[in-house]
Write a structure and sequence with these properties.
The structure holds two protein chains of two kinds. Chain A is an alpha+beta fold. Chain A has 17 helices and 17 strands. The radius of gyration of chain B is 27 Å and the shape is globular. The chains are: A alpha+beta, B alpha/beta. Chain B: Pfam families: SBP_bac_8.
């Protein structure tokens, strides 16, 4: 998580620019695609509705022709004297019946010529006999027809042609359109028979089927809201007041087409009234579906997505290239501290980045030069300070030593006094006269012995000093007066309680270090005190160099790997370990 | 340089993609059009009657074990089929024509003789010897077999046992009788019971054809000549027809549904008709056990047999792509499968004209409705005796003319004149 955030943070420039590009490219693409699709589907709808209006007119004409043929058939039947006469006579014998049935059958066949082959003409007599020209269309049962609602409705109508949609036992459960009319004698207005025409719904569908397609639906709607025929099979026979309302609304509007919601879907509606059949032809266009067929949405989307992706990839590559060098630069600069400002920036990338890096590197170099100069000056200063301290001999030391010698003389210890003077002379010679900063271990040990000798004369022999110097290390070089401050420290502070003890000095090479150890069995001190490297520097008794300085000096001369390490335990003693490089030559 | 070529490549890719998807679309549209015009590998069959012919096709499909065979059955009224075939075949395009079509035997010759090239000879797919002889003439032409015989129109005399017995007759009195004897029984039945003997539609002279075929006679001879004027069989048939009417033994009906109603309502005592009327008779539950079956009466003329035919059709394969598959299907089912015919009888009630099938159990089924008579078996026996007749081209056309003359005959015109006039008119129209 943190890593991701870090990566995001590092690439924030790329991301920002890229996001802007992404949003703009995507919105341009989406808006263009959307508006072009909308425009083309709008255009399509306009042309489509014009075509469909013409189609509707054509269908209307077909229905007009059809209804005309039915009406002319019904008129022909009503005006047919033979039928009228035959129907009004009584027949008793088989022979008479034979003639009656034959004659009517012949006349009916003639009437069939008026209408479509897919329709049938049925004549229902008052004796509940039927004559059927095409019972393949409607296998009518005379008794059912005679008792049907349809017949009753025809009886009630004023000599008008009536249209029915029927899907019941009467039509053998097949959806059919029935047309009926009562045959009446003009003078008496008595009904002598009934004229019927039937067409199956599926044949009626042929009037308009060819104009329909998926999403382009045609329905025939009665003024009472019943759907009597449609290419949408499941809607046939349904009562839809909703659709009727839309059709009526449409009729009143002057618009060419209208968007509505019906059957739980959005449609564009066109409608036309067929006066001869008293039905509405309703054209429901599923705009989305048609537009889908017209406009290959997938293709458009694939192309625009591809274009957008390619543009985005290109944009990303270019932006990335531009910003990566910059963010790399930023990263390098922010990482500077880790390399002590020593590592120059890599000069690469675009012009701007290269110039910046160069300028930065130049500045860095200058800075480093100044820093180096500063450090070396400081070092020189420190060294000369230490040097000066090295050569300083505390006048108290001289005074105290000389006083000790005077006491020895007075006490008649001539031998001791002369030895002390001897040691003092050598000590002074080595510290003041010898200007070398670096001396051999042998010389250092000798100085130490002289110093110890003086100290022992001054403070009796309570403290014994033992030297263990490996012969090979005698030739090695060490800074002058490096051990002395610790011995001095031990003499003055380690034996205040115990009064007597031993100091062991060990010098040997170990692991590429020259190790000098000074171990006393004196009072020791608390570990925390060791950190302070002994008491204050003002109490330096021999030279200006104190315990504290030694560590500093070694590090200054040789580096951080070297130095002084003090460990102590109260009551047991103190151990001082000095780590120095093995130097075989005088530097 | 590198970048320019990259851009070019990208744009090229883009156009290629656009072109590709465009082509795909075009291909898709074409395919759609193809399926609309004619379907690959799908065999289309036209037939009429959902419960009989189409049901038979479905039974055949169940017995056909070819997974690659795809049959689409389209139901059309018989008149529609006749009209569409005429339109399609006369225009010669064959577009939109089915692979398999059902044609009534009495119409078949008019198609075969008019458009022999439009049909595919199927001699190689079945053996004509296995089928009732009378089916072969109407379904073949010029020595080649075009039709695969389907159902038989073998006729019988269905009668009401109660009414016949009331008139004083028994089953034996109705077996192997002549039409002359039938008219007398009819008179007795009508006189004694007040119920008509048979129902007739004045516009359908099928009964005359049934009578004629008992002596192997027809409106035309095998040479195609109209033989009405001197047709003794027709003369005798017409005399019986008039006698029946004169005796008031007839219930006149106007159409098919009133015909069905006439016997279902108990208005007639007998139904001389094709075997296919049996399911319509037994549809009336209240008359269960009241019906029996006797052989169809014969004419008096020499060589007459008590067997005839009414209706019946056969399957034809049109000479278009897919004809082999269609013929193979018909040959393997209707042409040779005994088990299929058993199922056909049991499930559809259709009696085929395939002779080996009559030995199956389904044929010996004792029908309770018909007093336990093995009617299927009896029909299949009579079927083999049906005299072979060449129905010729114009059966229905001639009959329209005859129907008008029959009316004249009933009104008193002499029979000689009726026959002569019909002959003249028919010759004028069809010669």
């Amino acid at each position: 998580m943190k890593k991701i955030r870090a990566i995001l943070y590092q690439n924030s420039l790329v991301l920002k620019i890229f996001l802007v590009l992404l949003v703009s490219i995507l919105s341009v693409t989406v808006l263009t695609v959307y508006s072009s699709m909308r425009m083309s589907s709008q255009l399509f709808m306009d042309t489509f509705s014009i075509t469909n209006t013409k189609v509707m007119t054509q269908i209307n004409e077909r229905f007009y022709t059809f209804s005309n043929s039915i009406i002319s058939a019904s008129m022909a039947m009503e005006n047919n004297g033979v039928i009228k006469q035959q129907l009004q006579e009584e027949y008793n014998s088989s022979l008479e019946n034979h003639e009656y049935f034959y004659t009517i059958g012949q006349e009916m066949d003639k009437l069939q010529a008026h209408i479509n082959d897919e329709a049938t003409i049925v004549l229902l007599t008052n004796n509940n006999e039927t004559f059927n020209t095409n019972f393949g269309v409607w296998d009518v049962d005379a008794r059912i027809l005679a008792n049907s609602n349809i017949k009753r409705q025809i009886d009630q109508s004023q000599n008008k042609v009536q249209f029915f949609y029927e899907n019941s036992e009467l039509t053998n459960n097949q959806p059919m359109i029935l047309v009926g009319k009562a045959l009446k004698e003009r003078s008496t207005q008595s009904t002598y028979g009934y004229f019927f025409t039937a067409i199956r719904e599926r044949n009626l569908r042929n009037f308009y089927q060819e104009y329909t397609s998926e999403g382009n639906n045609i329905l025939l709607l009665t003024p009472s809201g019943k759907i009597i025929s449609s290419n949408l099979r499941d809607k046939i026979g349904e009562d839809s007041d909703e659709l009727l309302q839309h059709v009526l609304d449409y009729e009143q509007d002057i618009q060419e087409y209208k968007s509505i919601q019906v059957f739980g879907q959005n449609y564009t509606i066109l409608a036309e009234y067929v006066p001869s059949l008293h039905i509405y032809i309703v054209n429901l266009i599923d705009q989305d579906l048609l537009a889908q067929n017209l406009i290959d949405t997938n293709q458009t989307i694939i192309i625009s997505v591809t274009v957008a992706i390619i543009a985005l990839i290109l944009a990303f590559i270019i932006v990335r290239k531009m910003t990566s060098s910059m963010s790399d630069l930023v990263y390098q600069i922010s990482d500077m501290a880790r390399y002590q400002f020593n590592k120059p920036l890599e000069v690469r990338g675009g012009y701007e980045t290269r110039k910046t890096a160069e300028a930065f590197n130049y500045m860095l170099n200058e800075l480093q030069d100044y820093v180096k100069l500063l450090i070396s000056t400081q070092e020189k200063q420190r060294k000369s300070e230490l040097k000066a301290l090295q050569h300083q001999i505390n006048p108290h030391f001289i005074y105290n030593t000389l006083t000790s010698i005077k006491f020895m003389m007075n006490q008649g210890k001539k031998e001791e006094a002369s030895q002390t003077i001897e040691s003092f002379i050598v000590l002074l010679q080595n510290t003041i006269s010898n200007l070398d900063e670096i001396i051999t271990v042998e010389q250092e040990i000798e100085n130490l012995k002289n110093y110890v000798q003086i100290m022992q004369t001054r403070y009796s022999d309570r403290i014994n000093v033992h030297y263990f110097v490996s012969p090979t290390s005698l030739e090695l070089y060490v800074p002058k007066l490096i051990l002395q401050p610790f011995i001095e420290n031990a003499f003055f502070h380690a034996f205040t309680h115990k009064k007597a003890g031993h100091i062991h000095i060990l010098v040997a090479e170990k692991d590429n270090f020259l190790i000098c150890e000074m171990i006393d069995d004196g009072d020791g001190m608390k570990q925390s005190a060791t950190q302070k490297h002994a008491p204050s520097k003002k109490n330096q008794l021999f030279s200006g160099i104190g315990v504290r300085n030694v560590h500093e000096r070694i590090q200054l001369l040789y580096g951080l790997r070297y130095g002084v390490d003090i460990s102590s335990e109260p009551g047991k003693g103190t151990k001082v370990e000095i780590r120095l490089p093995i130097e075989k030559k005088k530097t | 340089m590198k970048k320019t070529s990259l851009f070019l490549l990208l744009f090229g890719l883009l156009f290629f993609m656009a072109a590709c998807s465009g082509e795909e679309n075009a291909a898709g549209n074409e395919e759609e059009n193809d399926t609309n015009a004619s379907s690959d590998g799908e065999i289309i069959a036209w037939a009429w009657d959902q419960h009989f012919n189409i049901a038979a096709l479905n039974v055949a499909l169940e017995h056909y074990e070819d997974e690659n065979f795809n049959l689409e059955i389209i139901e059309n009224a018989q008149d529609d089929i006749v009209q569409r075939l005429n339109t399609g075949l006369s225009s010669g395009t064959m577009k939109g024509m089915p692979n398999i079509v059902l044609i009534e035997d009495q119409r078949a010759q008019s198609f075969l003789q008019s458009y022999p090239d439009a049909f595919y000879p199927i001699d190689d797919y079945f053996s004509t010897d296995d089928f009732a002889d009378y089916k072969i003439a109407p379904t073949s032409y010029d020595g080649k077999q075009y039709g695969l015989p389907f159902d038989t129109g073998v006729t019988g005399l269905f009668y009401r046992t109660d009414l016949i017995e009331e008139a004083g007759y028994t089953h034996d009195d109705l077996v192997d009788i002549t039409w002359g004897e039938f008219t007398e029984i009819a008179k007795d039945v009508t006189d004694k019971t007040g119920v008509a003997m048979i129902s007739l539609d004045p516009n359908d002279l099928g009964i005359l054809r049934v009578m004629m075929q008992t002596v192997g006679s027809w409106y035309t001879n095998p040479e195609g000549e109209i033989t009405i004027a001197n047709n003794d069989a027709l003369r005798e048939a017409l005399e019986h027809y008039k006698t029946l009417l004169d005796n008031d033994s007839v219930k006149i009906v106007s159409d098919w549904s009133t015909f069905l109603a006439s016997f279902n309502n108990g208005e007639v005592a007998s139904v001389p008709s094709g075997n296919w009327i049996a399911p319509s008779i037994s549809a009336e539950d209240s008359q269960n056990g009241l019906w029996k079956l006797a052989p169809i009466p014969r004419l008096e003329a020499a060589g007459a047999v008590n067997a005839s035919n009414l209706g019946g059709s056969s399957w034809y394969v049109l000479n278009i792509d897919g004809k082999e598959a269609a013929a193979e299907f018909l040959g393997k089912t209707f042409g040779s499968n005994v088990d299929f015919y058993q199922d056909l009888v049991e499930e559809v009630g259709a009696i085929g004209t395939y002779k080996p099938a009559s030995e199956g159990d389904a044929y010996t089924f004792e029908n309770e409705y018909f007093n336990g008579q093995q009617i299927i078996y009896e029909f299949s026996q009579w079927m083999e005796d049906i005299p072979e007749v060449d129905y010729g081209l114009n059966t229905y056309g001639i009959e329209d003319i005859l129907a008008a003359e029959v009316q004249n005959y009933l009104n008193g015109k002499s029979l000689d004149d009726v026959l002569a006039d019909t002959q003249t008119q028919a010759e004028n129209q069809f010669k």
